[in-house]
Write the structure tokens for this entry.
Amino acid sequence: MKIEWDAGGPVRAMDVGVELGIEAEVKGGLEPLHGKLSKLAGRGRLRELPDGRFQIAP
């Protein structure tokens, strides 16, 4: 599955969750998503910024 979304800059896990239709208000609802984004950052696909936002790796 390929999702195209032009955010125009770094995004928070909550922003990604809202776009994917994940309930952001549920306690812990975004933790699995944040973990997946962090894993992508560890693999070099994304960069995790110090403030917790993510952006596509150059």
About this structure: The first helix runs from residue 13 to 20.
